[in-house]
Amino acid sequence: MKIDTAIKQANIILKKNYIKSSLLDSEILISKVINKSREYIILNLQKEINKYDYLNFQKLVTERSKGKPMAYLTGKKYFWKYEFEIGEGVLIPRPDTELIIEQVLKIYKYKKKINFLDVGVGSGSILLSILKEKKEFLGTGIDISKNCLNLCKKNAYKLKVKERVKLFKSDIDNFNLGKYDLIISNPPYVKKLDLKKLDKDIKDFEPYLALNGGLDGLSEIRKVINKATKLTKKNGKLILEIAFNQKKEVKKILMDKGFFIEAVIKDYSKNDRCIISKKI
Ligand code: GLN
């Protein structure tokens, strides 16, 4: 079968299943299967695809038609300026989370060296992107998922920053190591009862561990803030990603715990998304 025909078939199947980027996804999946770039595919539509590759392609298209995110099918996702290896069991990095990187770069523009901690490091998208930008920063990441830590380690190696990364398998309650100039976290913050309202792609495929913020959505945020009081140096900062409707509550928790609110940053859809505070 010709590449062109296989793509056209896949496009129809994906469209029928309400996958918006059906053609693009079909091209990307076929390029994964035959291990060539998307550009190659577009320039070689008349080439034949062998039976084995075609069967693999069909499998991927079927999974995609059920809503499985492209990042899990291709095993990668771009975030900030880099490509991260992604796997099932790890949250797929979101463009809105790049706000944290922007803010860190702004705040520490003239600072050469700091020691920072990422709570719930996942694939390492936040931690490693910062380390790539700031060549003398030292980063520590913790996560309760071994799977995530393995992926993060791989990404650190690929991005050539592994000498500046320390990783620990721990939850925040049991982590007591070091004092940090900065703590960042994109913790699970979706209300337990809202999990079922998430998009199918997310709900059916992404790890609840990275999304479930308990009954009020704030249980993990509370833990992070609580522990940050002990793990931050004086005048150290805490930067948290929050849900669009959590500003008021999170501000209050922070102030109760002795943090001064420096800024609340909106995301690309004009929702409050990131809260910057300082330990006083
Ligand atoms: N922003 C994520 C979502 O869209 C939630 C991530 C989180 O809970 N930290 O589902």
Count helical runs: 11
Rg (C-alpha, Å)? 21 Å
* C-alpha geometry: elongated
CATH architectural category of the largest domain:
3-Layer(aba) Sandwich
Tally of DSSP β-strands: 9
What is the terminal-to-terminal distance? 66 Å
Q: Any key phrases for this structure?
A:
single chain; 280 residues; alpha/beta; Helicase, Ruva Protein, domain 3; 2 domains; binds glutamine
Structure description:
It is built from 11 helices and 9 strands. The longest helix is centred in the first third of the chain and has 15 residues, at 51-65. It folds into 2 domains: 3-66, Helicase, Ruva Protein, domain 3, CATH 1.10.8; 90-279, Rossmann fold (3-Layer(aba) Sandwich). The N and C termini lie far apart (66 Å). It has a 7-stranded mixed β-sheet, with helices on both faces. A two-stranded antiparallel ribbon has the order 1-2. It is elongated, with a radius of gyration of 21 Å. The chain has 280 residues and is an alpha/beta fold. The structure holds glutamine. Glutamine binds next to loops.
